[in-house]
Structure formats: C-alpha cells, structure tokens
Design the sequence.
C-alpha cells in the first residue's frame, strides 16, 4: 500500500514537471497591433491622359512607418494606386521592384467584422494589373466627377499578406491631408489616412 502511494506521488510529480516543460516550449505570441497611419503622402506625376509616374511611398506594417528600403516594405502608394511587395511590376514608370511574397484580398464587411485572413484568396501585382484594382469602384475608392473627389468605398477592407508572410487588414479613411470629414475644393489630396491591424506572428492569421 505504501509503495503504491509513493509510486503515485512520484508519477504525479513527473507528469507535472513534463507538463510545465511542454508549456515552456510553446512559442510566446506577440500582441496583434491596431493603429492608425496618418497623412501618408502619395504624390504622382502625369495623369489626365499623360503617362503616370513618380516614385511610390512605401510602408511597412512591422515598423508602422514609411520606409525607403528596397525590400522591407509591404504596400506602397502613388496617387490612388496601391502596390504590394509581391508579384512583378505592372509596367508603369518608377515602380518599386517586387521582391517579397505580399498578396492582397478585398474583403466585404465592416473593419471589425473581418477577423481572419484564412480562407481568403490573395493575388499579387502582375504585368498590366495591380492586385488592388485601380479605377473608380474597382478597388478601394469611388471618384465623384461632379465634385472632383475621391472617397473610400464603405464596406471594403484590404487584407494584406505582407512581404514576409504575416497578415494585416487596412481600412482607408481618407485620401485628403488631415482627413477632413467633408473634403472640399481646398482639401489637399494624395495623403492617405488608414486604420490597420497587423499580426506580427508568423503563420498566424488572426486579425483581432
């Protein structure tokens, strides 16, 4: 009887020790980040029938800032065009070289309701076509020619696979400097303000 009790005690201690060891080996996940990026410039040359050009402004979700790196960027802005660091150049002037594995998907729903990147289809920039389609009502924005204004399309959320296979979601709030509630003729355009959620953990698709 005493031997059985002693054996059970030792077994319990050994099991507890092994369990603790397993817990210690589990990776510690970094917190999912929720931030707002303001006044990201997106200048361009040309347009209105002329060839569009000018360097893209590159942005990194990891740093939460504009970057000049040739490799450590995820999305980039020029006018109403958003490029991603995945695929190949589309063929316009002054595009950055794509050397990452970024992809994009346009999800329908509120920003809060898009909580997972899994199950979405991600496409990359390609010869002649951006993953985030350009043109009014094709991608993220609507153009109203009567008032000459760009407005984000409500209910469209950009889900991004980053250049290094992590995930983020983006809600464009404004295309105008300082994000005025009601842009007017005096509002300066080609400045992005957007909410984003970034998951810094590899192979983790949660966006909440």
Sequence:
């Amino acid at each position: 009887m005493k031997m059985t009790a002693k054996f059970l005690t030792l077994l319990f201690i050994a099991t507890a020790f092994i369990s603790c060891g397993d817990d210690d080996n589990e990776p510690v996940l970094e917190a999912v980040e929720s931030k707002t990026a303001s006044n990201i410039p997106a200048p361009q040359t040309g347009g209105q029938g002329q060839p569009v050009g000018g360097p893209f402004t590159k942005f990194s979700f990891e740093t939460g800032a504009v970057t000049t790196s040739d490799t450590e960027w995820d999305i980039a802005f020029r006018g109403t065009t958003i490029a991603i660091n995945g695929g190949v150049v589309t063929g316009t002037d002054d595009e950055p070289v794509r050397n990452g594995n970024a992809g994009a998907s346009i999800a329908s729903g509120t920003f809060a309701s898009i909580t997972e990147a899994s199950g979405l289809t991600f496409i990359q920039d390609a010869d002649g076509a951006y993953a985030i389609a350009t043109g009014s009502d094709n991608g993220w924005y609507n153009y109203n020619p009567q008032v000459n204004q760009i407005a984000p399309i409500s209910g469209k959320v950009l889900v991004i696979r980053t250049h290094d296979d992590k995930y983020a979601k983006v809600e464009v709030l404004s295309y105008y400097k300082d994000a005025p509630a009601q842009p007017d003729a005096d509002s300066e355009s080609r400045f992005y303000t957007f909410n984003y959620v970034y998951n810094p953990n590899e192979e983790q698709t949660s966006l909440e």
In short: Residues 33-199 form one domain. The radius of gyration is 23 Å.
